[in-house]
Amino acid sequence: MGESKLAGQFFDAAIGLLQEVRDGDSAEIAAAGAAVAEAVANGNRLFAFGAGHSSLPAQDVVYRAGGLALMNLLVVPGVVGVDVMPATLGSALERVDGLAGAVLDSSPAAAGDVLFIISLSGRNALPVEMAMNARALGLTVIGVTSVAYGTETKSRHVSGTYLKDHCDIVLDSRIAVGDAELSHEGIEAPFAPASTVVTSALMQATMAAAAEELVRRGIEPPLLRSGNVDGGHEWNGRVMTEYADRIFYRH
């Protein structure tokens, strides 16, 4: 078989979006990286949260080779992935008032920590409430969202606001409402979402900016190595021991 025209179009769309966020979000990415570096340098903690498929970019920066060992996943039971049964329950829980506050109150997150909140639409009660409560607790909130949803959709939070309205820094994924890059004759629904590709790139770019800022401050970034290379486990053991009080996915 020859190459797929639609596959090529998806790559083109994803590359175009990556170029957009690289150029359009550069200042915000640098600011987010500086906030992460500040937390690392000051003994604070790092957390990432996302619901549904927005949890994938959050998971992408937690406990992985080449990533900051201090990044922790803030888990809201029932919304992290599609393994919850039925899968539609996760979507329903995103609209439940009070859930984010309960999770934050029982988490180790505290004033001075950094929390990434990833939500493509930013319109549901869960990410909005999470951002509002986190800022009230004194956390630095970095929202990763598509700002377009704030003008083209209706908020589902009682305040009528969106995630983007309650953040210290906003990283705009620039994903169009509906999250589908392609359409084709004979296919009724649009398809080929790119939000995971772009949002994961925003997260990794921010981690790179944080590492750069830490080095500028004379601090060795607490990075993990691959366990599949010689010496990786030993390296990771030393990092995890040194920063044990700020790593919550081990116990």
TrEMBL record:
Gene3D superfamilies referenced in this protein's UniProt entry, alphabetically: Glucose-6-phosphate isomerase like protein, domain 1
Signal peptide region: none
Pfam family, one: SIS_2
Top-rank taxon, per record: Bacteria
SIS domain: residues covered: 36-219
CDD domains, A to Z: SIS_RpiR
InterPro entries reported in the protein's UniProt record: RpiR-like_SIS, SIS_dom, SIS_dom_sf, SIS_GmhA/DiaA_subfam, UPF0309
NCBIfam families for this protein: PRK02947.1 (NF002805)
Similarity field: Belongs to the UPF0309 family.
UniProt-listed PANTHER family: PHOSPHOHEPTOSE ISOMERASE, SEDOHEPTULOSE 7-PHOSPHATE ISOMERASE / DNAA INITIATOR-ASSOCIATING FACTOR FOR REPLICATION INITIATION
Protein name: UPF0309 protein Shyd_00760
